[in-house]
Write a structure and sequence with these properties.
406 residues, two-stranded antiparallel sheet, 6-stranded mixed barrel, 12 strands
């Protein structure tokens, strides 16, 4: 233990001889560690933000979207073809096990008016179970009922953004609005939910019974999509398999033919949405890691210079009884100290940089513990790796030749 303490004292004394050179040598490690932690923090924060946005879709969601169609040689995209019907919804309700809630959906945009104000917004036709699927609480009033859906009642629930544009700060519940000149009574106001993963404002919408939307607003008999909620996360895969099999059977799709609908689960959406952020986080971390290697090369360079400058000192120590392994340990300890101190300063710098980005750019960041621990261990490994050769070179010096060195 005394020998280790002695080596540590000698190493720190040697590093203090030229403070400026020591600090410049550590700078590469400091920048490298700071960059790695900052990049990983930014990437991790972005991934968590995406996951939160996907979670805003609801709980255990399975979405079935109508297929696309070719029109004039142009593919109109998913949801354009009339491949989903209300009969499909009834079949899914009665024949698929593990389904908690179902909401057929039609969508469109229309001008909304109230008094002398108007606003163009998204109109969503849904069932009375929609809020249960989306786990979306109400801020005021109530949601429409199953009876409202059956009768095609002219009732509406407003999103926060839409309500603010039309009624400003007033409570819209009980007020009259017009959608395509059709009068609707506002029965509820949704709590704010924010933007989705595509950047669209989820609060800029009006929700009405899907029967009302189909008959009075859009004049259509087909559905844009059907949203289901499984009873548990473990049931999502089973529900998806059943839904696919049932719809293929109902739509008379032969074996080997493509589905005329598209099915997406919340798990698939999460994986797809976070895959890009994971790749970018890894790429940014790898690029930042290059600066750590450059810092390690700087340590090796300075240690080789130090060995040359202290050749006579090494010769004297060997002549008075120091062993080669003591010399090697001393120089290796100096390299490790350079990298460890630089790593610690770099950790502080990286955490501070990520916090500054979050504050100034309003960008979500999160510094994971594995990034801090990994950066610290990597900096130590760099000290050992790049310090070994100079330390070994110092230990292999011939005492007589070293004493003659000027």
């Amino acid at each position: 233990m005394k020998k280790i303490i002695s080596l540590f004292r000698v190493a720190t004394r040697a590093l203090r001889r030229n403070v400026l050179r020591t600090m410049l040598t550590m700078l590469g490690i400091i920048i490298g560690v700071s960059a790695v932690i900052a990049m990983v923090s930014i990437g991790t924060g972005a991934r968590i933000q995406v996951e939160k946005q996907v979670a805003s879709l609801g709980q255990n969601v399975v979405m079935v979207m109508a297929g696309g169609m070719m029109r004039g040689g142009v593919f109109t995209g998913m949801g354009a073809a009339p491949t989903l019907t209300l009969e499909d919804v009834a079949a899914l309700r009665s024949e698929v096990e593990g389904v908690a809630f179902v909401s057929p959906e039609v969508r469109g945009s229309a001008q909304l008016t109230a008094g002398n104000l108007n606003w163009n917004t998204s109109i969503m036709g849904e069932s009375e179970e929609y809020l249960e699927i989306r786990a979306w609480p109400l801020a005021e009033g109530d949601f429409f009922t199953a009876e409202d859906v059956r009768s095609g009642a002219r009732v509406a629930v407003l999103g926060k953004t839409t309500a603010t544009k039309i009624f400003e700060d007033a409570n819209p519940v009980g007020e009259l609005i017009r959608i395509k000149d059709v009068p609707f009574t506002v029965v509820g106001l949704l709590s704010a939910k924010g933007s989705n993963m595509m950047g669209q404002d989820q609060d800029d919408a009006v929700i009405v019974p899907y029967t009302t939307a189909m008959r009075r607003l859009f004049g259509q008999t087909n559905l844009r999509s059907i949203t289901l909620s499984a009873t548990a996360a473990a049931e999502i895969e089973n529900v998806s398999t059943q839904v696919t099999a049932l719809l293929r059977q109902r739509h008379r799709i032969q074996a080997g033919r493509e589905d005329n609908f598209m099915l997406r689960t919340q798990q698939e959406i999460t994986e797809f949405a976070t895959s890009t952020t994971k790749i970018m986080t890894g790429l940014l971390g790898a690029i930042a890691g290059v600066s750590l290697l450059v810092g390690g090369i700087g340590i090796m360079n300075i240690m080789l210079v130090s060995v040359t400058e202290r050749t006579r000192e090494i010769g004297i120590r060997l002549a008075v009884g120091a062993r080669k392994r003591d010399i090697q340990r001393q120089f290796l300890l100096e390299a490790v100290l350079l990298s460890l101190v630089g790593g610690l300063v770099g950790i502080v710098g990286g955490v501070a940089a990520s916090a500054l980005v979050a504050k100034q750019l309003n960008w979500p960041t999160l510094t994971p513990s594995y990034a801090v621990g990994g950066a610290f261990l990597f900096s130590a490994a760099i000290g050992i790796f790049f310090g070994y050769y100079p330390a070994r070179k110092a230990a292999q010096l011939d005492p007589i030749e070293a004493l003659r060195y000027e």
